[in-house]
Write a structure and sequence with these properties.
Number of strands: 0
Helix content: over 70%
Structural class: mainly alpha
Shape: elongated
Number of domains: 1
Radius of gyration: 17 Å
Order of helices and strands: HHH
Low-confidence stretches: none
């Protein structure tokens, strides 16, 4: 199920977004969805890294986390 959300962004960001839509042939919504998906993944990854570092001080880098969870 999809839901519509209304957001406001500064004009400069809108211009950059429109430039990318033209270059990549994607819609604004598509790029924003992809960006939000990436942001949420990164947030989840950082949370995982933080929890792992609390339990194991020898975990320092993103690669250390990838190695542990892979």
């Amino acid at each position: 199920m999809r839901e519509t959300i209304t957001i406001s962004i500064p004009e400069e960001i809108k211009k950059q977004l429109d430039k990318i839509t033209a270059q990549e042939g994607k819609t604004r919504s598509g790029i924003i969805r992809e960006s939000l998906r990436d942001y949420l993944f990164i947030r989840q990854f950082r949370s995982l890294r933080k929890r792992m570092m609390e339990k194991s001080p020898c975990v320092y880098t993103d690669q250390d986390i990838f190695n542990r969870v892979s």
